[in-house]
Design goal:
- It is built from two helices and five strands.
- It has about 90 residues and is α+β, with helices and mostly antiparallel strands.
Length: about 90
């Protein structure tokens, strides 16, 4: 079933290849959307795809790459837009 979510990740997630880690896993799960750093040192992920794959990505996000330290994750369901063609890393 099609689903969409916005996820905010807090912790040591900048400077540890977290965005690349999430991008690679999202692509493996055939998810679309983006990830970007926020000015407050959090990371924002907007993702669309199969609800089971989003759930799998959420579990991967919670672990993160080797040097990341996840303190908190806030996830909210969003309305499916179908606007995304791929999963991108957005820059400031």
């Amino acid at each position: 079933m099609k689903a969409a979510a916005k996820i905010i990740v807090q912790g040591s997630v900048q400077g540890v290849f977290y965005r690349q880690f999430v991008k690679e896993n999202a692509e493996l799960l055939k998810l679309k959307g983006y990830i970007r750093n926020l000015t407050n040192s959090d990371v924002e992920i907007v993702v669309e795809g199969d609800d089971n794959m989003i759930e799998q990505l959420s579990k991967i996000i919670a672990k993160g790459p080797k040097h990341s330290q996840i303190r908190n994750i806030q996830a909210e369901a969003r309305k499916w837009s179908g606007d995304f063609k791929e999963f991108k890393i957005l820059r400031f």
